From TrEMBL:
Segments passing through the bilayer: 6-25, 77-95, 115-133, 153-170, 182-200, 247-269, 281-302, 426-454, 474-492, 498-522, 529-548, 568-592
Alphabetical keyword list: Cell membrane, Ion transport, Membrane, Sodium, Sodium transport, Symport, Transmembrane, Transmembrane helix, Transport
PANTHER family in UniProt: NA(+):SOLUTE SYMPORTER (SSF FAMILY) (PTHR48086:SF5), SODIUM/PROLINE SYMPORTER-RELATED (PTHR48086)
Entry-linked NCBIfam families: Na_symport_lg
Name the UniProt record assigns to this protein: Cation/acetate symporter ActP
Family, as annotated: Belongs to the sodium:solute symporter (SSF) (TC 2.A.21) family.
Biological process (GO), any one: sodium ion transport
InterPro entries on file: Na/Glc_symporter_sf, Na/solute_symporter, Na/solute_symporter_CS, Na/solute_symporter_VC_2705, Sodium:Solute_Symporter
Topology with respect to the bilayer: Multi-pass membrane protein
């Protein structure tokens, strides 16, 4: 049986399961559509939250970022895990006690202002749409490989699948679909990792195998990996980061963005009681930890396996001949996510740190063939040649290497890992189903957050308070369909890898929604004016900073400055700026509130009652 047939069987079986669940749990009311009727068991909700949480960024892209970036990319792990703890301890129980369907609902009532609710809707839609771009990008990568189509076609297929079960089932359908998706994705992630860990270290627990002895060389696996990558001019895998400020801000941005993500917060409204919200958070952390404990090992082992594939006899021996490349590399080339450029014409695959020479030469060829600044591109090639010649005392130029010839998209590393390690075909089919489950589960949750913000918080709250349940459901489904179309279009030309796009979304959520939620729960003094000014300031400053480097509204070739460290303000990356935006939000909210009148007494009592363990008062504890 061919690998393609096996992939179809695994992916098809999982999709049939998801569709069956969506039809069985079809939402018939707005309460079922928004919060699954409010009767989900805490353990099931914990699983669904885990699937909602472990998106394409976690399943597909995070290990790829760790594979490429080593210790420096561990900020993704620290930020996302720490942020979930913040969410579980500081926000989820209190928001559940308040008893509203959505985040804008809470902000509108707490800050006694339709204007505050509208700003929250805008923040939610922008953050969630950016996040969905990352999910659709990841889903497109998975579909393109395992259905053996190009990346754009894969993205279109993903959009159709998400449209079917998210639009049909609402939160009720999504919740039970995500329980199934969690089971699929965690099995799919851990089984290949166990096989690879056994193969490389003899240890069946990947998280421990990463710190074990590399069987073939007899030295620690991470030491072996450091040797391999430094011999090829790359920074050591375990090397410290040069810009500590950026690392701290990035981690903080991911943490507060996590705690401000509306699609995860909504999950805590689906359980019967406040106590269940706490238990859901605890169970979700357990389920999330199973994958996050494994991810660093998957990244490290994937990087080592890739390097050993290109240099089977070591970095000082001739590289792999292009004609002898393994079948997995040929298949990924068809998707466009692996590209080979024989720059020196020797027919071998040189993959190494070339000081940007290969990329500069490709840019020059593009400028010459398609139009562009040829003079600037030529100057960039000459500058890169000088740096290239200085690498490891001319080792690479002496070998006749004219630049890095293999471009591997980070997002493929987890999906390609079983093939690189020559694991059985059924394992490859399993990880295909898992990667798609991860991308689609989070995409569905985000789309629900967007649709509920538009139908419930925008239309019903502001434009048509008398809209019927049926009408509200129709608006929700239409808005979800429009969001899918927008996310698919932007996913074709994303502003980065899946994990990077998601990081941008976290920065936007952290700069705008997180401070408003925190101040709304823990400060009685913050009023409607402070909340509105703070959210707008945090959102606008963060968006402008991102667009200046990533392109306005993520449209290609519209950036004002190159997205490189020398052009960043004080060395702060666009992906790290969310923490700065949040600080601006907090400061302005407190300043404006202190200069204007205090919130009404009943609002201050409401804040007190939300934090009170007994006597909920105006808050709803059921």
């Amino acid at each position: 049986m061919s690998q393609f047939t096996i992939n179809i069987l695994f992916v098809g079986a999982s999709f049939l399961l998801y569709f069956a669940i969506a039809i069985w749990a079809r939402a018939g009311s707005t309460k079922e559509f928004y919060v699954a009727g409010g009767g989900v068991h805490p353990v099931l909700n914990g699983m669904a939250t885990g699937a909602d949480w472990m998106s394409a960024a976690s399943f597909i892209s995070m290990a790829g970022m760790l594979a490429a970036g080593g210790y420096g990319a561990s900020t993704y792990l620290m930020g996302w895990t720490g942020g979930y703890v913040l969410l579980a301890m500081l926000l989820a129980p209190y928001l559940r006690k308040f008893g509203k369907y959505t985040v804008p609902d809470f902000i509108g009532d707490r800050f006694y202002s339709k204007g505050a609710a509208l700003v929250a809707v805008a923040c939610l839609i922008i953050a969630s749409t950016t996040y969905v771009i990352g999910q659709m990008t990841g889903a497109g990568v998975a579909f393109s490989r395992f259905l053996e189509v190009d990346n754009t076609t894969g993205l279109m297929i993903a959009a159709v699948v998400v449209f079917f079960y998210a639009v049909l089932g609402g939160m009720k359908g999504i919740t039970y679909t995500q329980v199934a998706q969690y089971v699929v994705l965690i099995i799919a992630y851990t089984i290949p990792a166990v096989f690879i860990s056994l193969e490389l270290t003899g240890n069946p627990i990947p998280g421990l195998g990463m710190f074990s002895t590399h069987t073939e060389s007899g030295i620690p696996l991470l030491t072996k990996l450091d040797q391999v990558v430094t011999d090829l001019g790359f920074t050591a895998y375990t090397a410290d980061v040069p810009n500590k400020l950026n690392m701290v801000l990035f981690t903080l941005s991911l943490m507060i963005g996590t705690a401000g993500l509306p699609h995860v917060i909504i999950r805590f409204f689906t359980v019967p009681k406040v106590a269940d919200a706490r238990w859901s958070a605890g169970w979700a952390l357990v389920f999330i930890a199973l994958l996050y404990f494994t991810a660093p090992a998957v990244g490290a082992m994937a990087r080592l396996n890739l390097m050993n594939t290109v240099y089977p006899q070591g970095a000082d021996a001739p590289a792999l001949r292009y004609e002898d490349r393994p079948s997995w590399m040929q298949t990924w080339e068809e998707t466009g996510l692996i590209k080979y450029n024989d720059l020196n014409g020797d027919g071998r695959i040189q993959m190494y740190s070339d000081s940007g020479l290969g990329a500069a030469q490709v840019a020059l060829a593009t400028a010459q063939n398609e139009g562009g600044d040829v003079a600037a591109a030529t100057a960039a090639v000459e500058e890169a040649k000088v740096a290239h010649a200085a690498e490891l005392e001319g080792k690479f130029t002496n070998a006749g290497w004219a630049g890095n010839e293999l471009d591997v998209n980070n997002d493929i590393m987890v999906l390609a890992n079983p093939e690189i390690a020559n694991l059985p075909p059924w394992v490859i089919g399993l990880i295909a189903a898992g990667g798609l489950a991860a991308a689609l589960s989070t995409a569905a949750g985000l789309l629900l957050a967007i649709s509920s913000a538009i139908s419930h918080d925008l239309v019903k709250r502001n434009f048509n308070p008398d809209i019927t349940d049926k009408g509200e459901l129709l608006v929700a489904r239409i808005s979800m369909a429009v969001a899918i179309v927008v996310a698919t279009y932007l996913g074709i030309n994303p502003p980065g890898f899946a994990a990077q796009v998601v990081a941008l979304a976290f920065g936007i959520a952290g700069a705008s929604l997180f401070p408003a939620l925190m101040m709304g729960i823990f400060s009685k003094r913050i009023n409607n004016y402070g909340a509105i000014v703070g959210m707008l300031a945090g959102l606008i400053t963060t968006l402008v900073y991102i667009f200046v480097y990533k392109g306005w509204f993520f449209i290609p070739d519209t950036a004002n400055f190159p997205d490189t460290a020398e052009y960043w303000l004080f060395g702060i990356s666009p992906m790290s700026f969310g923490a700065v935006g949040a600080l601006i939000n907090f400061i302005l909210a407190f300043l404006v509130s202190s200069m204007t009148e205090a919130p009404p007494v009943h609002i201050q009592q409401l804040v007190e009652s939300v934090r009170s363990p007994r006597g909920a008062g105006a808050a709803i504890d059921h």
